[in-house]
Amino acid sequence: MANNVDALYIFLLVVSGMMTVAIFTLVLVFAVRYRKRPGQRAEQIDGSHALEITWSLIPFCIFMVFFAWGAIIFFQERKPPQNSAEVYTVAKQWMWKFEHMEGQREINELHVPIGRDVKMIMTSQDVIHSFFVPAFRIKQDVLPGRYTVAWFHATKAGTYHLFCAEYCGTMHSGMVGSVVVMEPKDYEAWMGGGGNQPLAVTGEKLFTELGCVTCHRSDTQGRGPNLVSIFGKPVLLEDGRTVVADENYIRESILQPGAKIVNGFKPIMPTFQGQISDEQLNALVAYVKSLSQAPSGQTGGRKMATATP
Amino acid sequence: MHNSPIATADQEAHQNPALLHHFATEEQQKDAASLGMWVFLATEIMFFGGMFCAYLVYRYWYFGDFGAGSQSLNVVLGGTNTAVLICSSLTVALAVRAAQLGQQKVIIICLILTMLLGLVFLGIKGVEYHDKFVEHHVPGPGFHFPGHVPGHPDIPINQHHAQIFFSLYFIMTGLHALHMIIGVGLFAFITYNAMRRRYGPDYYTPVEVAGLYWHFVDIIWIYLFPLLYLIDRSK
Amino acid sequence: MATAVLESGERETYLNKEYGIKSWLLTVDHKRIALLYLVSITFFFFIGGFFALLIRLELLTPAGDLVQADTYNKLFTMHGQVMVFFFLIPAVPAVLGNFLIPIMIGAKDLAFPRVNLLSWYLYIIGGALMLYTILNGGVDTGWTFYTPLSTEFLNTHVVTAGLAIFVAGFSSILTGLNFVVTTHRMRAPGMTWSRLPLFVWAHYATSIIQLLGTPVLAITLLLVVCERLFHLGIFNPALGGDPLLFQHLFWFYSHPAVYIMILPGMGIVSEIVCCFSRKRIFGYTAMALALLGIAVVGFLVWAHHMFVAGISLYAAMIFSLLSYFVAVPSAIKVFNWTSTMYKGSITYQTPMLYAFGFIGLFTMGGLTGLFLASLGIDVHVTDTYFVVAHFHYIMVGGMVMAYLGGMHFWWPKISGRMYPEGWGRLAALLVFVGFNLTFFPQFILGYMGMPRRYWDYSHSPEFQILNVLSTAGATVLAVGYVLPMIYFLWSMRYGKPAPDNPWNAAGLEWMVPSPPPTFNFEEQPVVTWEAYNYDEIKEEVPVAQ
Ligand SMILES: [Cu+2]
Ligand SMILES: [Cu+2]
After folding, report:
1. If contacts are CB pairs under 8 Å, which of residues 128-147 in chain B contact chain A?
2. Where in chain A do CATH 2.60.40.420 domains reside?
3. With pLDDT > 70 as the criterion, what percentage of chain C qualifies?
4. How many domains, in total, are found in chain C?
5. What is the least distance, in Å, from the CA of B161 to any CA of chain C?
6. Mean pLDDT over each residue of chain C, to the nearest integer
7. Which residues in chain C have Cβ-Cβ distances shorter than 8 Å to B20?
8. CATH assignment of the domain containing C74
9. Contact A9/C447, CB-based, under 8 Å?
10. Are A97 and A107 in contact (CB under 8 A)?
């Protein structure tokens, strides 16, 4: 991704550099060539529509190339690949908290392996922050009250700066960290460190403790919708609208159950707003997502899916 | 300037005492004044436009809670106020016509009627605000809006969303009321001048321009009333 | 033609007609109000500039060592608010526009002289509130007031700062209203729309933005103030509100606000380039339409400030596309200025040097804007020093260059005195060099990833060398800005008396005496010539001494 952005950047640099040089040269040449000389007067020219149209249309076409190329890159940046490793991120004044699917938690440091697509699912506890890793050329604001998503694919081992790019109060400039990109085997070693509980397992426990499981049963008998395999699918609502069950939808349905009622169900679910932390919410979301993954594979989430019929 | 020949020429040119020094003709002055008011009203539309925009966005998101908020407003008082404002627009129009015809007494009567109607509107608005205050529907620490979403007896009203409805209600109607107060002040000033017989067929621009302003304030209400009071009555 | 003469034997002008503080504070003469504005905006310019110098000094070293983090945040916030709302937006319209528009169209005054004075007082009330905010400990929201930070998380003077800008906004609205009505209704006989100087067209376009944009900012700030006082929740996600709605409303004004700053500058440069090339403008119609085009399309691009803020993919694409549309008329303007010089008879007096500077810096600012409009690049460089450099190239490199060029061009008319040409050229050079040294390194810093509004960058010492260059440049720039103030003041007393038309320039303002009499024209002028009729003006620009 960084290469694509740099290629476009260099292209823009060259084209706009040429435009700048052309204009500067013309201004200088005219300024010298047509400087005031005794006995010589300016020659009046009213303008030329042909010329004006030319120098409107040619830049316009060039601009459209800028636009299209930039839009293509942006489109890729906004579409995380399927099967990315997911990192749940909670930003707060003034630190970054990360939680891997496997359950590792980190503060201001994020460890990722080379060659893996990593999807950041981010929210903020207070004000707007922005997740910015200059080396990866990515940036995404992190908002309170909803998830925003960014993804990257690191290709070189090393430690890279992580900045908060949206002004967020006194120690905004202290809200920095690093992304540590490791060789896969180093990463495995780092991962193997603690006996952590996968996020989806934490979520499943919560799902039982909070009593969600009594209504959201995995058959059709529950008082709430069956959550198996809903993630990423369109859901028909009671008022006739259809929404895609993404992370934000699950989040909203836990915090404001009355906002989007699934067709055929009654709005009986109590709100969990203010009763669970952002971390717990993340775990629940991770659990619900794990119910929709194919029952083969090795991540914790997928194992959960097989374990929960 | 007083001993310069230019100044004398200028003063001689002032046929109508209301013609200001920098205008060439009375017509130019009148055109400038009414264009100025139209341009000002364009600004005002954008001023209210920002809030209408916020209202529409939140209404779309928080449909049920906004419906509940809307139904809690007093449609009888709101409707009465609409009628009052429409009458006041009529009296303003009559005042402008009277000024054009030079009917001094009629101008004054119509202007006073307009101001009275404006004050009646503000009074009724005050009663409505008072009711909301008593019911704890004023946003802030004491805000409390129990009940359920219209048509869904099992969905309780989201207090936060209802508070946004009432915030917008108070800010929008409050700013509208502020415009009414300014309008009444404007008419008080014009009535004073009318009593000094300043307006007639030759010069009625202030009456006309203030009337334009009043009609605009009226139109804003014509949008506010259905958007806030009526829109969710069907359920 | 009779000329008013004072008892002392001097010709009566707007400056010497009356003396005393009251004759200034209660004046309704657009020229005197322009001077009131000149003094007030200069005051705020130096306050904002002082904050800028402190910011640059802090960034000289990576560690946050000169001031505290909170202080630094207040410095960049108040630098932004003071410069944007109390200098850049009023500068050209309220000073040069106010002084020149009535004269350029052959009117005795603006359509509503008392409203004009009222708008100055509103500016002063807003300014006083801003000063109160500064002296009471300041405000640290960033000039953008982003919620919920500004409404729920800071305990500085957000309310007074918001009200200051709210009030100053009405000053801006009333100025725009006055200009629109004046341009429509006060033109002299024969001054048709197609004969208007581009300076007037530029202000007309600017006024439209002031009229339609500023009220939206006003209501947004009012909501922020209410939100802060009563915690309504409109922009607070914890209470069901949406912070992105705030950003949409804020940028709906604040993107077009860039054109409030730059369009009048484009007007000035058009006047200067024509005069010192002794030529008609190349493509008058295209230039006028481009001004209007920028004003209109400028209203449709605001969300390009929000590409990474969480707006939808398709919204981002549309706003990126529209942002390129607005670049086309800007490009036309640069090409047409350049072509105006073709086959001219060019001299390099101070105003022309500033115009050269403007064309160069505006070109670079505009082209880097294309980088930011490109979604793929914007994601990386937005909220970094790249953006800081870009908008300073437009707003300082473009607008302040044009403002200074205009001040030098019309100073003989305003004051009736000539400034020292040699010093003028030196200052122009210092500003140009100092500006580039300050802001060019910031483009590189931005691409390297240095976020804006960082007090401390000790984690990235590689940023230091470019920051040192930038601070050095700021010092040169400061000298370049102080110099004109000194020699303008000096010239008021010691400068050579200016002739009525020191540049032999075209336009009604050069046909009235310098300085003009109170009512500008002794007789109603009748216009029979086209704009920029340099073919009919036989004299060249006098050789500078
Ligand atoms: Cu932050
Ligand atoms: Cu913009």
Report:
1. none
2. 85-191
3. 98
4. 1
5. 6
6. 93
7. 113
8. 1.20.210.10
9. yes
10. yes
Write down the pLDDT at residue A42: 82
Q: Which amino acid is at B122?
A: L
A36 touches chain C (CB under 8 A): yes
pTM across the whole model: 0.92
Q: Do B155 and A267 touch (CB under 8 A)?
A: yes
The tokens describing C176, both together, are 């725009």
Interface test with A, best of C155, C358, C380 (most A CBs within 10 A): C380
- Using the beta-carbon criterion (under 8 Å), do C73 and A144 form an inter-chain contact? no
Per-residue b/e over C245-268, b at no fewer than 16 CB within 10 Å?
Answer: bbbbbbbbbbbbbbbbbbbbbbbb
Nearest CA-CA distance, residue C543 and chain B, Å = 36
Q: Looking at the domain assignment, is residue C10 inside a domain?
A: no
Would you call the peptide bond into C201 cis, given omega within 30 degrees of 0 as the criterion?
Answer: no
Give CA–CA dist C161/C151, Å, rounded.
12
pLDDT band at A206 (very low <50, low <70, confident <90, very high): confident
State the average pLDDT over residues B67-78: 92
Residue in A with minimal Cα distance to C76? A167
pLDDT digits (tens, 9 = 90+) for C323-359: 999 999 999 999 999 999 999 999 999 999 999 999 9
Closest CA to C525 of C1, C116, C10, C96: C1
Q: How many CB atoms lie within 10 A of CB C482?
A: 13
Give DSSP secondary structure letters for C180-241. HHHHHH-PPTT--GGGS-HHHHHHHHHHHHHHHHHHHHHHHHHHHHHHHHH---TT-GGGT-
Ligand 2 centroid to Cα of residue C251, in Å, is: 7
- Concatenate the DSSP letters of all residues of C481-516 into one string: HHHHHHHHHHHHHHSPBPPS-TT---SGGGTS-SSP
Q: Tell me which chains share at least 3 CB pairs under 8 Å with chain B.
A: A, C
Q: What are the beta bridge partners of residue A124?
A: A91, A144
Q: In Å, how far is C400's CA from the nearest CA of chain B? A: 28
Query: Taking CB atoms and an 8 Å limit, are A5 and C331 in contact across chains?
Result: no
Q: How many angstroms is it from A174 CA to the middle of ligand 1?
A: 8
User: What CATH number should be reported for the domain whose range is A85-191?
Assistant: 2.60.40.420
Question: Could you read off the pLDDT of C54-81 as tens digits, one per residue?
Answer: 999 999 999 988 999 999 999 999 999 9
Distances (CA, A) of B42 to A17, A198, B36, C259: 42, 59, 10, 19
Q: For residue A87, what is the DSSP state?
A: E
Residue C86, pLDDT score = 96
Taking contacts as CB-CB distances below 8 angstroms, the residues of chain A near B149 are 258
How many whole angstroms from C370 Cα to the centroid of ligand 2?
11
Partner B contacted by A266 (CB < 8 A)? yes
Q: How far is B60 from chain C (nearest CA, A)?
A: 13
Classify residue C450 by burial, with Cβ atoms within 10 Å: 0-12, 13-18, 19+: buried
**Is there a cis peptide before residue A59, judged by omega within 30 degrees of 0?**
no
For chain B, list the domains and their CATH numbers: 33-229 (1.20.120.80)
